[in-house]
Amino acid sequence: MDQKKGTIEGAEMKRIRVTLTSRNVKHLEKVCTDLVAGAKRKDIKVRGPVRMPTKNLSITTRKTPCGQGSKTWEHYEMHISKRVVDFHCPSDMVRQVTKITIEPDVDVEVQL
């Protein structure tokens, strides 16, 4: 009864936000499921993954470098997907959860 509300064994509970960003949705979803499954094995309260809107970046450019000939155009697009996962646990527990193998094209950002 001496422990404060929101603490476990004297450690303060914090909200840790993990933001995952990638151009490859399959790799992003795999990392998300591995991250959430690892947290649930450790009995950590998890909220997410929250799917943020996909950014669609596009560039339209002329095909010919000199400007002569028919005016033909090339369109390039890149889609960037983002997922947000929140953990409610002591900060030292997050290190144990994030020791999963992360795909090389997935960017991870951790906010305490």
Description:
With 112 residues, this protein is of the alpha+beta class. It has a single domain (11-63, 71-111), classed as Alpha-Beta Plaits (2-Layer Sandwich). The protein is built from two helices and six strands, in the order E-E-E-H-E-E-H-E. It has helices at 25-41, 91-97; strands at residues 7-8, 11-12, 14-22, 45-62, 73-89, 106-111. It has a four-stranded antiparallel beta sheet. The chain has a two-stranded antiparallel sheet with strand order 1-2. Strand 1 (7-8) and strand 2 form a beta hairpin. It is rod-shaped and about 70 Å long. The two termini are 28 Å apart. The mean pLDDT is 85. Keywords: Ribonucleoprotein, Ribosomal protein. Belongs to the universal ribosomal protein uS10 family.
Strand and helix map with partners:
Layout: E1 7-8, E2 11-12, E3 14-22, H1 25-41, E4 45-62, E5 73-89, H2 91-97, E6 106-111
Antiparallel strand pairs: 1-2, 3-5, 3-6, 4-5
Pfam families: Ribosomal_S10 (PF00338)
Organism: Carpediemonas membranifera
Family: Belongs to the universal ribosomal protein uS10 family.
> How many DSSP H or I helices?
2
Q: Quick one: CATH superfamily?
A: Ribosomal protein S10
| pLDDT averaged residue by residue | 85
User: What is the number of beta strands?
Assistant: 6
Highest-level CATH class: Alpha Beta
The tally of structural domains comes to 1
Shape: rod-shaped
In whole angstroms, how far apart are the ends?
28 Å
Give the helix level as a range of percent.
10-25%
Secondary structure category: alpha+beta
Taking the sheet with the most strands, its summary is: 4 strands, antiparallel
How do the strands line up in the largest sheet?
4-5-3-6
Order of helices and strands: EEEHEEHE
- Residue stretches low in confidence (pLDDT < 50, at least 5 long) are none
Instruction: Return the CATH topology.
Output: Alpha-Beta Plaits
CATH architecture: 2-Layer Sandwich
Protein name: Small ribosomal subunit protein uS10
Family: Belongs to the universal ribosomal protein uS10 family.
Organism: Carpediemonas membranifera
Domain Small ribosomal subunit protein uS10: 17-111
